[in-house]
Design a protein that fits this description.
Number of strands: 10
Radius of gyration: 20 Å
GO molecular function, one term: tRNA N(6)-L-threonylcarbamoyladenine synthase activity
Number of helices: 12
Shape: globular
Cofactor: Fe(2+)
Largest sheet: 5 strands, mixed
Protein name: tRNA N6-adenosine threonylcarbamoyltransferase
Distance between the termini: 20 Å
Helix content: 40-55%
Bound molecules: adenosine-5'-triphosphate, magnesium ion, fe (iii) ion
Family: Belongs to the KAE1 / TsaD family.
Enzyme class: transferase
């Protein structure tokens, strides 16, 4: 089926087209620059920007795919989790297209879409697979017995998400928002063993699949402040590399352990932080050592986009899952085990 996907859960207006598991187009507009001076995404600004970008982005997606709107067989849209006002813009657009084209509408889970996008590059996901979902708002270990119907959360962050930690540490280091890409770049010149930052929740009695990044974030801030108070220069590259190493170490250690414990030999990474070069390299290394098949989407598809939503929509159509009600609503805190709304 030819599926048109809409993503507006945060600051990216994404519209993508997928035929089966083939990526046809992935048009993206972002309001990231408008949020930069606030150091985080401002919901009202994001909603307004989605509204302005929506129609041109749909037209670009159709043109890049070389298809007409009338060829579309189904529409998929992020129904949650995310910013309510932002989600509503995508939902309104998706409903309008589904209604006008008289095709089924699927209101889907943004997090499951972050996992589904990998199928566009590496073929159908093995089931069960383990998924490590790491983004700006979420950090979870998921057992995926059936991507169209059943996703189970094994663990999650008890405080900050991994991406949030990147964003906050970047701020401390005077790097731009969002912090992931500049930290990734700065870390290339740094020594990951320069500073021993804490690995949260890795003690023998800690929850094996939960994460905690707020202690790490605070440790980095304290370390930097101590340097500044002493009037010494802050070695930005070393701090970035050491912080990034701590995050990648904990994430990969726990993901591999979850695979081993559950007897699952496929791991897929998803979400914006999965674009991180050190996380990708360390996951590769540790999965190879543990005999786990690792799948990671290319960095561009790890961060929010419309193709990931279309990919999940396509999977739902293929699985014969019933479409959502035409009046499906936004759910800002949609639980991860709800793949699609009824
Ligand atoms: P969610 O998916 O939880 O709703 P989101 O939609 O805001 O959150 P994504 O686009 O999936 O998030 O991810 C954005 C996050 O990914 C930001 O926190 C950003 O700093 C982080 N990120 C992007 N690229 C990298 C990178 N190379 N290294 C580390 N983090 C990165
Ligand atoms: Mg974003
Ligand atoms: Fe996301």
């Amino acid at each position: 089926p030819l599926v048109l996907g809409f993503e507006t859960s945060c600051d990216e207006t994404g519209v993508g087209l997928v035929r089966g598991r083939t990526l046809l187009s992935d048009a993206l507009a972002t309001s990231v620059a408008e949020h930069e001076r606030f150091g985080g995404v401002v919901p009202e600004i994001a909603s307004r920007a989605h509204l302005e970008a929506m129609v041109p982005t749909v037209h670009r997606a159709l043109a890049e795919a070389g298809v007409r709107a009338a060829d579309v067989d189904a529409v998929a849209v992020t129904a949650g989790p995310g910013l309510t006002g932002a989600l509503l813009v995508g939902l309104a657009a998706a409903k309008a297209y589904a209604l006008a084209l008289d095709v089924p509408l699927y209101g889907v889970n943004h997090l499951a879409a972050h996992v589904a996008v990998d199928e566009l590059q590496h073929g159908r996901l093995a089931e069960p697979s383990m998924a490590l979902l790491v983004s700006g708002g979420h950090s979870s270990l998921l057992l995926v017995p059936d991507l169209a119907r059943e996703v189970r959360s094994l663990g999650r962050t008890i405080d900050d998400a991994a991406g949030e930690a990147f964003d906050k540490v970047a701020r401390v280091l005077g790097l731009p928002f969002p912090g992931g890409p500049p930290i990734d770049r700065a870390a290339r010149e740094g020594d990951p063993a320069a500073i021993e930052f804490p690995r949260g929740l890795t003690g023998p009695r800690d929850a094996p699949y939960d994460f905690s990044f707020s202690g790490l974030k605070t440790a980095v801030a304290r370390w930097v402040e101590a340097r500044q108070r002493a009037g010494e220069p802050v070695p930005v590259a070393d701090v970035a590399a050491s912080f990034q190493e701590a995050v990648a170490d904990v994430l990969t250690r726990k993901a591999v352990r979850a695979c081993r414990d559950a007897g699952v030999d496929h791991l897929v990474l998803g979400g914006g932080v999965a674009a991180n070069s050190r996380l990708r390299a360390l996951a590769e290394e540790r999965c190879a050592a543990a005999g786990i098949v690792l799948r990671v989407p290319s960095p561009r598809l790890c961060t929010d986009n419309g193709a990931m939503v279309a990919a999940l929509g396509s999977r739902l159509v293929e699985a014969g899952v019933a479409p959502s009600a035409p009046d499906v609503g936004a759910d800002s805190s949609l639980p991860i085990d709800v793949v699609a709304l009824s």
